[in-house]
Write a structure and sequence with these properties.
two-stranded antiparallel sheet; 8 helices
């Protein structure tokens, strides 16, 4: 009975380093988009967007604006809770984006795509306003198709 022995492929150390550098250069545009998205999502609550609360549709555009409302404002807690949820969600998306960035710098697009998927998935409740991760994830998917 013959046993299957997989072929052994030897690589010089410089070949491995070259492939990592080549992968980083190949994904340079995606790396820049990911860095921008990380910065954006980590500051969603501070930079904010148009959000209205209460029957009078009072516009409260950030966590700081919500916290500065007078205690007598009826929808103050609702606004604060909304913006705190935005901050938590942005943090989760940003952390996953950091992991994607590390993978891209290593040249591992498949792993980066997994982390970008999570970032855009977590962003979904706020995607209409934040518009951060969906485009980065789609760019990664496009890059994966081009690499095939």
């Amino acid at each position: 009975m013959r046993r299957f022995v997989p072929p052994v492929i030897f690589k010089w150390e410089w070949e491995t380093d070259f492939n990592i550098i080549k992968g980083t250069v190949m994904y340079d545009d995606l790396i820049k988009k990911t860095e921008t998205a990380i910065d954006s999502s980590l500051h969603w609550a501070e930079r904010g967007w148009s959000a209205t609360f209460g029957p009078r549709q009072t516009e409260i555009n950030s966590l700081q604006a919500a916290e500065e409302l007078p205690d007598t404002y009826v929808y103050r807690m609702e606004a604060i809770n909304y913006w705190k949820q935005v901050r938590l969600t942005g943090h989760d998306a940003g952390v996953s984006g950091q992991k994607a960035l590390e993978s891209l710098k290593k040249g591992d697009l498949r792993d980066a795509e997994d982390h970008l998927y999570f970032s855009q998935y977590v962003e979904k409740p706020f995607a209409e306003f934040s518009k951060t991760w969906v485009s980065v994830y789609e760019a990664a998917k496009t890059q994966m198709l081009e690499d095939q």
